[in-house]
Specification:
With 84 residues, this protein is mainly α. It has helices at residues 4-13, 17-24, 28-34, 41-63, 66-83. 79% of the residues lie in helices and 0% in strands.
Length: 84
């Protein structure tokens, strides 16, 4: 199996393929196809940087109080309304 280091990092971080793909602005299917072949050092560095960002995001969300999560959710809803 190729890219075991990336797969292991995802597993240890409890990050799903779709979450990584979303952060990379690609489809989950595209990510899975890319992982079939060994990636270059630069590509891996980019992916590991994104995984670290996702881990920090998850930690921040986990450490939020229920009220803080509700405020953040309301801000996202309002932002969606402005865009639409």
């Amino acid at each position: 199996m190729k890219n075991l280091d990336i797969r292991q990092a995802l597993k240890e971080s409890n990050i799903k393929h779709w979450q990584l793909a979303d952060a990379l602005n690609i489809a989950e299917f595209t990510l899975c196809r890319k992982l079939r072949h060994e990636l270059s050092k630069e590509q891996k560095e980019n992916i590991f940087a994104v995984i670290e960002q996702l881990k920090k995001k998850i930690i921040r969300r986990y450490n939020m109080t229920k009220e803080q999560r509700q405020i953040a959710q309301n801000e996202l809803i309002m932002l969606d309304m402005k865009i639409a």
